[in-house]
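Hi everyone,

Forwarding the result from last night's run.
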Amino acid sequence: MSTAPLPEFPTGFRWGVSTSAHQIEGATTADGRGPSIWDTFAQSAGRISDASTGEVACDHYHRHAEDVALLAGLGVSGYRFSIAWPRVQPSGSGPANAAGLDFYDRLVDELLAAGIDPVATLYHWDLPQPLEDAGGWLHRDTAGRFAEYADLTAARLGDRVRLWITLNEPFIQMSLGYGMGVHAPGHLLLFDAFPVAHHQLLGHGLAVAALRGRTASPVAIANNYSPVRVLGGRDADLAAGAAYEALHNRLFTDPLLGRGYPELPGFDASVIRPGDLDTIAAPIDVLGVNYYNPTGVRAAEEGSPLPFELVPLDGYPRTAFDWPVAPDGLHDLLGWLHTRYGEALPPIEITESGCAYDDAPGPDGQVSDPERIAYLDGHLRAVRAAIDDGVDVRGYFVWSLLDNWEWAEGFTKRFGLVHVDYASQTRTPKSSYTWLRDVIAASRPGSTR
């Protein structure tokens, strides 16, 4: 970690943290909430590494006032949270569940009272189970149901949410949930999962139209990006790198910005109907960029069902997830987006960036996490360098405020600025929380650096 102060960020730069509903809320049967695909997935033996569920998680549903106080103490100007579709529409269709929306109504008002912009994500992977039973994102009708849900939610909250995000990481939902089967709903379809990509993007476009009819607040999508590092100089390795870049980084960005889908081997494009690409390319105000690490790629062995093989990258420190800590990847990614999409690229906000480490309280009860501080320091410098290069980046949201239920990893991975004792639900700010609080305070106009 550099010992030098961080460079100054532009006036109005949005400092924030992110969470998601299923990972922190708990209260999975409160207020009429219905089951999601993650409730079902977690009940299946062997799916979650520690056999836990999100039934309680961080109990944020009951402790949200305490968590808003933590946000206020941190000094963030934005809080990105997600809304649980099954809490708003337990069956995935029909009228809104008013009791479920009441929770988000209270949360939004508390955030505004604390001077924090509510940044609401409509879909962070918790599809209502009845929609999955009807085909899930493989089924075109789910895109229409998503737009109806967006309309119902914005009708209640649209006057106060400051930024709407339609989907979180549709690539991960497609690849891990439907392609590789390691996330909910657990399908192993490989390239036959392409309808999931298209129907998510179609749902995004339909939701953009619904939101525009309910609110004047800006609208975004949050994509997961991973710059590709090709290992090996053979033509086959270069082709494998290009294929993976098209799959991971372009499949969910090219059509958003009016370029249509990239050519990919094995995808059946018959699900695309006339007018779909125009719907998907509805203008957005912000592109959310989620970044964790680059990906090493080389040509796959003969007979592999995939045209590429993912391989570890050497020469970087590793997180508890064994991900390389590579701030240079974030700088490269932002430059790639800026160069590839040019004037079609809307302003960017980093909507997730963070790291998991095995944080635990010391003998004094405090939680020291110098690795996370070094991670944030490096990645913020990478963002500032990209801004200096002409990339329009307007915010940075740390993943995450709280240690939480980390999907298929259960409670075994800790990403939070705040340590959570899951038995007692005690929250303990880590040293990274204090460090970021001071960084944010120093960025305010009139501060002494």
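Residues 14-443 form a domain with the TIM Barrel fold (CATH 3.20.20.80).

Cheers,
N.
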